[in-house]
Design goal:
mainly alpha; Arp2/3 complex 21 kDa subunit ARPC3; 6 helices; 2 strands; 71% helix; globular
Length: 182
């Protein structure tokens, strides 16, 4: 994939936004509340599948090499064994799904559908990873209800709000940015 300077700049912008979204975090048990998913959704909607994923890959690489860009200012290779790392992997899939579904059709109904599916993708990857690390690596006992209680249910209302904000922002930004992104 050949990238223009413009592609690199806007991709870096969404990498930075995701990092800032992670640093602004509210601890809520083992999974903090952050603004990251807002920027992941916007990366897919505005950048499309390839650049959206690239922005999230870059974000994860920056964190894994030790920059404190993950939730609460953490980073480093040890993050892989954090119960929350699965949500970061989910960001890759969500950016791709949202971008792929809206690349050719940015109607409101298509955007809403893509955002719902992308947001669910984060949970589908993040929650089982949380369970796996929590039980197998950390050696703690937790059942399905406990996993949902810690890694899913408290976050759904906030994620609905963030997804709604992303949809509203995308509907305003996409027409204005289309001349720069195409």
């Amino acid at each position: 994939m050949k990238l223009s300077t413009r592609d690199l700049i806007i991709t870096a912008l969404f990498t930075a936004l995701t990092a800032v979204g992670g640093i602004i975090s509210i601890p809520l048990g083992p999974v903090p509340i952050t603004l990251q998913s807002l920027f992941v959704i916007l990366s897919g909607l505005i950048l499309g599948a390839k650049l959206g994923v690239l922005s999230q890959i870059t974000y994860i690489i920056l964190g894994l090499i030790g920059l404190p860009v993950f939730a609460g200012g953490s980073g480093g290779m040890g993050s892989v064994i954090s119960p929350t790392f699965g949500f970061l992997i989910g960001y890759l899939a969500a950016a791709y799904v949202i971008g792929k579904l809206t690349e050719k059709n940015k109607s409101l109904s298509k955007i809403i559908y893509a955002v719902i599916l992308g947001s669910l993708t984060i949970y589908v990857i993040g929650v089982p990873y949380f369970y796996f690390i929590f039980t197998n690596y950390l050696g703690k006992s937790i059942n399905l209800y406990g996993t949902l209680k810690f890694a899913c249910l408290p976050f759904v209302p906030g994620d609905v709000v963030k997804a709604s904000i992303a949809i509203i922002l995308a509907r305003k930004l996409i027409p204005r940015l289309s001349k720069y992104l195409n």
